[in-house]
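Regression test case RT-17, inverse folding.

Input:
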């Protein structure tokens, strides 16, 4: 395992006109549960379907319709909690959060306020080798999503799509442990990565599959440490919540703007009003959505249609036993088993599909060499073509075969890159391509020696310079490689050139 004795990153300090200030950030992440059916109905969760086509009677709040808990959604939330090393509450309950909006046909949202399904956990957010932030998870509760109001289809009317109504969400609430915009993005990235490994959330932010509410406040240096000592949130300053963020870049921009807005108000002698704000990416600023957040009375009460949810420990244990190897453990194993750097291991484990691809290539081969080919050649080419690893035209077996040809001495590294390009664009068996196209490396020392002799005989002045300055021997190596079309074994060429020049 990796050494978990890490240094926490320093909090971001923002210089105001009069004082230095530090950021304090907490996040409420809404992650859509990966499930084919909704939380309380059998309606489909398919994204992009015709408006109002995935709506059951209970989703539309038809009279007399009763919710029925989808066990799979609960299992997915428990699985997420276990992946975040969180406490699973065997007894939890659903509440009604009452508010009125056109896309909420029931007039309330079924959520969990008083007795959440998942308790305290943690996320370890790597910022750099040996530098990580441990972000505490306060709770994860399960709730149903609302519908979607559409305001841009008609100049005088709004429309409502209830397809999303009743889709299961996990609201993952962090403690105010995040200390900068980059950390906030890194935290959400790590959370997304863990859930994708677990298969509990697809994490597609563009489709609203994953979105975050970001709570931002500023305080003077040293105040956060007092909060940690006393538990008194008054040390952290008044927070403002930025709603419905679905872009890592915008999250960072919104936090930075909001922090500077609050600092300017405080340094002018004003006070921060606790409120909900929205981020306008076109203007690069936050604006007020509603104020006096704490004054909102949602009239929570236990949902009378749903009995308290009671889990059996054995059922939870079975879910725990089925958990896959998670990112931190996989990264540590790649470092230990394949001799990779933490950075390379981090790149390869960012997505589970990439990690699986690498392991297939590395099996029975040199791990570092396999990592270099996957990261530098394959990932570089895929990025250029805007392709995902799952769309790679080069299979693990094909890339492994290229590496095997290098190890056998059949091709040089340069030829291997040419071969990789052929396999990437045309496909085929690497060994057969090398044979059919005459790409095999020249290892016959007699043939190489003859080429070296030709180059030396044709360049007597260069020979004298190389004997005075051995570094110039590389020129002869280059000439021989050029004469052989890059097919000569580079190691053999270097050795023969050195011997012929008496170096």
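Golden output:
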């Amino acid at each position: 395992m990796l050494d978990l004795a890490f240094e926490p990153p320093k909090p971001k300090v923002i210089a105001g006109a009069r004082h230095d200030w530090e950021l304090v950030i907490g996040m409420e992440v809404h992650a859509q549960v990966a499930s084919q059916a909704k939380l309380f109905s059998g309606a489909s969760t398919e994204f992009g379907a015709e408006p109002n086509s995935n709506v059951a009677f209970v989703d539309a709040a038809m009279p007399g319709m009763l919710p029925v808990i989808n066990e799979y959604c609960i299992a997915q939330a428990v699985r997420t909690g276990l992946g975040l090393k969180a406490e699973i509450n065997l007894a939890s309950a659903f509440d009604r959060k009452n508010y009125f909006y056109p896309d909420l046909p029931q007039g309330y949202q079924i959520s969990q306020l008083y007795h959440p399904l998942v308790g305290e956990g943690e996320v370890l957010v790597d910022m750099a080798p040996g530098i990580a932030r441990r972000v505490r998870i306060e709770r994860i509760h399960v709730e149903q999503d609302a519908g979607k109001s559409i305001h841009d289809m008609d100049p005088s009317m709004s429309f409502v799509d209830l397809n999303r109504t009743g889709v299961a969400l996990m609201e993952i609430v962090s403690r105010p442990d995040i200390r900068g915009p980059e950390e906030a993005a890194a935290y959400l990235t790590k959370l997304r990565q863990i859930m994708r490994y677990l298969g509990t959330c697809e994490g597609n932010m563009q489709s609203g599959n994953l979105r975050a509410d970001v709570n931002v406040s500023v305080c003077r240096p040293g105040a956060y440490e007092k909060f940690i000592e006393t538990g008194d949130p008054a040390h952290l300053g008044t927070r403002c919540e930025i709603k419905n963020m679905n872009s890592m870049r915008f999250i960072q921009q919104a936090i930075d703007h909001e922090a500077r807005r609050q600092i300017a108000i405080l340094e002018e002698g004003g006070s921060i009003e606790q409120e909900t704000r929205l981020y306008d990416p076109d203007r690069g600023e936050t604006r007020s959505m509603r104020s006096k957040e704490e004054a909102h009375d949602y009239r929570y009460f236990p949902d009378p249609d749903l009995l308290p949810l009671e889990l059996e420990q054995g059922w939870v244990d079975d879910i725990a036993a089925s958990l896959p190897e998670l990112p931190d453990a996989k990264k540590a194993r790649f470092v230990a088993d394949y001799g990779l750097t933490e950075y390379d291991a981090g790149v390869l484990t960012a997505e589970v599909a990439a990690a699986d691809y690498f392991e297939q290539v590395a099996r029975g081969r040199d791990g570092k060499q396999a990592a270099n080919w996957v990261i530098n050649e394959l990932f570089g080419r895929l990025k250029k073509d805007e392709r995902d690893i799952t769309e790679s035209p080069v299979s693990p077996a094909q890339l492994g075969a290229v590496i095997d040809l290098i190890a056998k001495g059949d091709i040089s590294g340069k030829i291997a890159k040419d071969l990789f390009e052929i396999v990437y664009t045309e496909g085929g068996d690497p060994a057969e391509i090398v044979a059919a196209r005459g790409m095999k490396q020249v290892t016959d020392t007699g043939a190489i020696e003859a080429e070296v002799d030709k180059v030396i005989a044709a360049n007597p002045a260069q020979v004298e310079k190389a004997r005075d300055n051995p570094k110039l021997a590389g020129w002869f190596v280059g000439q021989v490689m050029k004469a052989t079309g890059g097919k000569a074994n580079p190691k053999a060429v270097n050795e023969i050139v050195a011997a012929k020049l008496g170096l």
